Amino acid sequence: MPLQPSPTLETFANPEPGRDYTVRMAIPEFTCLCPRTGQPDFATVELEFVPDALCVELKSLKLYVWSYRDQGAFHEAVTNRILSDLVQAISPRFARVTGRFNVRGGIQTTVVAEHRKPGWQAPQAVSLP
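^ thats the sequence. predicted structure below, dont judge the formating
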């Protein structure tokens, strides 16, 4: 098991590149530091993406998330950075990152950032009886 965090997201080939499907991941133990106070900020980070040619490899995602533990970052900045890094690594058709930060000073913050590949449109939702 690696003993160090890593800012690198590894990938693997999408096993079904001809199909739109959604991958959802929840990271309930995300931690970074408040850039003003140095106190820890805790969050659940949710990743959703429709892969194109590549998917993100889970072990590298764990090490990537660990790399934030000692970094100071505002909630808005860290959520958008995770989205940018995911998009750079896998170029998905669609991606959404939601950061649900725990209450701090009586305020609970949720930040949602999205990416759409140019020209991609979500398929129509199917409603079953």
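DSSP finds two helices and six strands in the chain.
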